[in-house]
Every structure is written in C-alpha cells, then in structure tokens.
Write a structure and sequence with these properties.
The protein is of the alpha/beta class. Helix content is about 45%, strand content about 15%. The protein folds into two domains: about 230 residues, 3-Layer(aba) Sandwich (Aspartate Aminotransferase, domain 2), CATH 3.40.640; about 120 residues, Aspartate Aminotransferase, domain 1. The longest helix has 23 residues. The protein has 16 helices and 15 strands.
Length: about 425
C-alpha cells in the first residue's frame, strides 16, 4: 500500500488506482538500475501531491502576476535558499520544469540562433540538449561536438581545447548522460575562460553525489550549473539552474518569461524537501555508498567477463560494452527486465550498431542504494546479470524467471520508500 495512502484515488478512479498500485509493486519487486531513476521519500511524495498544485504563480517571489502568493513566495524562497546553501552558489532558479527546458534557458540567455555551441557528442555519452542534431539545440545553433579517446573512453581535453580555439563556441557544456568518470571542471573552466565562452556544468546525473561530497563540485569553475532534481538528488522530477551573481538576471529572464509561464508549485515544494534531506549527514553517507556500490559492482562485472567503458567507474554509473558477448544491448535489457533487473540499452563510444539497437548497457546504483543494498550484494547482482545475458543468447526464459524470483526474495528484506506490501 502507498505511504501516504491513496484512498480517494482508489474510490474516484479504481482503474487508474490499480495501475498505480501495480507500478508500485513492480518498483518494489525489481532491482531498479536505470542510472537516472531513484525512489523519493514519503515527505517528497506528500509535498508533490499537495494542494500547491492548485495555485498559479507566474513571476518570482515578491514579483508575481497573480495575487494570493503569500505562502507560495515563502515556499519558493525556501527552495532557493536551500539550493544556495547546499551547493554554495550565488543564485538558484528552481522553476524549470525539467532538465531539457533548463538547458534550453541557457541557450536563450547566452546565444543567438546560428551561434556555435559545444557539448559532448551524444554517442560518446553526451545529452540531446548539448547540441545533438535531433534536438532543437542542434537545429537552432551550430553544434561543435567533442569526443572521448578510443583508447580509454575518457574525454579528450586536448581535442576540446583545439575545437574551442578553432570554433569559438559561445557556450561549452560539461557533463552528459553516460559518463562513468569524474568530470574535470577546472580543465573545462580554463578552456572556457581562454575563449570567453560561458561554461555550463550539466550535473543532472551527479547532483546528489556533489551535494553529498562524493564528486567534485563545479562551483567556482562553471558560470552556470544546470541539474534535474531527481536522479541521485532524490527529489521530484523538476530542475534547477544555479549561477554566479553575474548571470542570475539573464537566467531568470530566460526561464520566465522566456520559456515558461507559471511554475509547478507542488514540484517546488518537493524540491525544497529533497534539498533539506540532502543537507543531512545521512544523505552524505548515502551519496558515498552509491559510489562504493558502483565500484563494487564494476569490479564484480569485470570478474564475470564484462567489458566496461573506461574500465570502471568513479560515480554512480557503469557503461557495459557487450560486443565481446556477441549480443546487443536491447535484447539484454529486455531479458534483464524479465529477470527483475531494470536497466536501459545504450550506445557506447564509437558504437558500430544503430542507436535503437546498440552495443551497450547502462547501469546505475542510486535506487538500489536507497533501498539499503551495499557492496555485499553487488557480486550476486553481477552474477545474475551474467546469467541473464547467457539466457538471453539462448532464449532461455525459465532462467530469467528464476532470477526474477531470487531478486524478489532478496528485495523483500529491503523496504521501499513510499510503498509497502499489504500485510497478509
């Protein structure tokens, strides 16, 4: 049953309530290893499901276009103040609806259509909104894409510097969606300063690790920091943009009125709760445990004969290259899903397969760490993954079902925030 309960939804729309309950049961019963997913606390669930969703609030605290903002202003300011304190920044905007609009606001603030902008190429581990061709950012601006080295899968900062000097991008993005190693923010900052570019650190994946001291911070190096508020930060699905004082006005104007109308006040409240949680010592321990689990899992996967991009991980994320296994990432991800291990197929650097059927598998440890799993369980998880890969190659569905039952048995001993099995 849900914590908090959902009796009114159950009465008003039993069909939908049953689907919500089924999804909660699914989240309870599987190892959720998609690197961008997590579990939020019951407090975050309560905030995002509150009456704050009723209120429209165009503008910023103290400067609204609608009346009745006496408490909304305080809630948003609370989220702003907590973000500034937690990350040590001059300014925070907590209104972006998600990570992509947050990044789009950066373009609106600092570039004109057709300007050169630099980001990591999507197949190398970058993000769509860092100038990839199918994104508006790659259509409206002239993308300059840096890559990783073939030899070790790490960012080639010499290439970044050479490209920046030649193309003179207005914006440089550091960060991405499949980067298993520490991002060298000081090196990116040096390159950006040399050519007069705005350096944007997209920390969507690692924000919780930074907040918990498990990854170096871009503060003091990046002019602008964008992030989602879920993933490792363990908040609701929203976003923030943090800046130096110099860039605060441009970013605020880009978010509203540039791209958005009224903020989602219930999400803002959920962000405020998550930021308070992230300031606790327990969250710091959690962030470090995420990394410890990822390192232990990477080592165990290597022992099982898997090839890992960059040879391992420094953070929450592992990128597996399945080429040597003779099977693609898509059939493996589907087999693992049946086996109770939720992942996503993913391209690997210099992939020879198509993006919808790539060679890679992306794994993450944030959600399983929230459930309370530690390094002790990582070898078993690696063994399950290995067995599932072998089963996928043989179309052995019975083995996948056996693994799923073993996963459920393991997870029965690790509570899920926000839901618990109905007592029998």
């Amino acid at each position: 049953m849900h914590v908090p309960p959902i009796p009114h939804l159950t009465t008003a729309d039993p069909e939908l309530a049953a689907l919500v309950e089924s999804e909660a049961q699914r989240q309870h019963d599987v190892l959720r290893m998609i690197a961008s997913e997590n579990y939020v606390s019951p407090a975050v669930l309560e905030a995002t499901g509150s009456v704050l969703t009723n209120k429209y609030s165009e503008g910023y605290p103290g400067r609204r276009y609608y009346e009745g903002q006496q408490f909304i202003d305080q809630i948003e300011q609370l989220a702003i103040d907590r973000a500034k304190a937690l990350f040590g920044v001059d300014h925070a905007n907590v209104q972006p609806y998600s990570g992509s609009p947050a990044n789009l606001a950066v373009y609106l603030a600092f570039a004109q259509p057709g300007d050169p902008v630099m980001g990591m190429a999507l197949p190398m581990g970058g993000h769509l909104t860092h100038g990839w061709s199918v994104s508006a950012t790659g259509t409206w601006f002239r993308p300059v894409r840096y890559e990783v080295r073939r030899s070790d899968g790490r960012v080639d900062l010499d290439q970044v510097r050479d490209l920046a000097r030649r193309e003179r991008p207005k914006i440089i993005f550091a960060g991405g969606t499949a980067i298993p190693r520490t991002i060298d923010f000081p090196a990116f900052a040096e390159i950006a300063r040399e050519i007069g570019a705005v350096l944007v650190a997209d920390i969507a994946h690692i924000a919780g690790l930074i907040a918990g001291g498990a990854h170096p911070s871009p503060v003091g190096y990046a002019d602008v920091i964008t992030t989602t508020t879920h993933k490792t930060l363990r908040g609701p699905r929203g976003a923030m943009i943090m800046t130096t004082a110099e860039y605060a006005k441009a970013i605020d104007k880009a978010v509203f009125p540039g791209l958005q109308g009224g903020p989602h006040n219930h999400t803002t409240a959920g962000i405020a709760v998550a930021l308070r949680e992230a300031s606790q010592d327990s969250f710091r321990r959690y962030a470090h445990q995420i990394v410890a689990n990822a390192k232990a899992l990477a080592a165990a996967l290597t022992e099982q004969g898997f090839d890992l991009v960059t040879g391992g991980t420094d953070n929450h994320l592992i990128l597996v290259d399945l080429t040597s296994k003779g099977i693609g990432g898509k059939p493996v991800a589907k087999a693992l899903d049946r086996a109770g291990i939720e992942t996503n197929y993913n391209t690997v650097p210099y992939d020879t397969r198509k993006p919808f059927d790539p060679s890679g598998l992306r794994l993450g440890t944030p959600a399983l760490t929230t459930r309370g799993l530690t390094e002790e369980q990582m070898p078993q998880i690696a063994a399950w993954i290995s067995a599932a890969v072998d089963a996928a190659a043989k179309a052995d569905e019975s083995t996948l079902d056996t693994i799923a039952a073993q996963v459920r048995e393991l997870l029965a001993g690790y509570p899920m925030p926000g839901w618990e099995p109905t007592p029998r």
